[in-house]
Amino acid sequence: MTPEMWLAVAAGFVLGAAVVGLGFLRREKAVAQAGTLIPHRTREVLSALQSGTVIVRRDRRSAFSNPTAAALGVARPDGALHPGVADLAEAAWAADAPVEDEVVVSRGVLGVSSIVHVRVTPLRHDLALAIANDNTEQRAAEQTRREFAINVSHELKTPVGALSLLAETIEDNADDTEMVRDFAKKIRKETRRLTKLIHEIIQISRIQGGESVLEFEEVPLAEVIEEVVEGAHVTAEARGLEVGADVSARPTIMGDRDLLVMALRNLVENAINYSEPGAHVTVSLAAEDDVAVVKVIDAGIGIASEDQERIFERFYRADPARSRETGGTGLGLSIVKHVVLQHSGVVDVWSKPTVGSTFTVRLTIHREEQ
User: Fold this and answer.
1) Which helix (H) or strand (E) covers residue 133, if one does?
2) How many CB atoms are located within 10 Å of the residue 335 CB?
């Protein structure tokens, strides 16, 4: 290597070191300025807040941010700031008044988006306070409520419309005794469907609101299953099916007996409604370590794989025509899911078209302290 080349390499090293040193000095200066701008006690208070808090500088960086702000993704400890927060700060300075809005933040390697509500208040010409809170769950809940209201309106419209049409037909054919009798039966069927729908809407609203589970008590699951199976015999016989219990253990759990009966009754009624005459529905109970396992097994028409992920959604029907025939509301499995969740359990399904379905509920067994 020639002397000129050695000089060039040496100059490069010196220049690189100077750039690194300059960057280090700038970072140190920024930290020092942040410490000067934001007193130690103020930083301690802001760090203790549950909301994300950021002191925004005029250069679209943060003079201080607490750990919650970093967790929310609106600011980083090195001073980097979410562009949406910086834009709100500029709007607040321009208006000389607090400004608030929601910003979408992508977090993690998968880029999962969350909705963060940010309120920015100007403190002085070069500093502003941003308060951030995660609104993702609130927005999801609002969307769920809107969808629920739309679905309820749609579901109620069908039986109410049918009742109105049937009543008009009877009125126009009052002299035809046979027709009046036939349409009266249809009115009773639609009325039962409407009553069931309203009852289940009330039930799922209470369950999701947590109002129905006030105090847990010791519940012997074998007794719950016996009550459900006994109550299902009339419906099963009317459809030419058999319902039986297979109890190999008698675990006790802490829970709400009425809700558990309702959930298992929904599973058994589904199994009956989606089975052909001559089939058998079995409700089994077993214990696996500290978990009670309840299974509702049928040899019915089964559920397609693309429907299995959605059957626990409210108003979702894998077979709409069959649901109308049996008076199904599309809420039964959603009620099951929420009851099981309130008991800190899990519910899942195995199913294959033309073979049948098995719904499995797992709940923690209650053990008395020794």
Assistant:
1) strand 127-134
2) 23
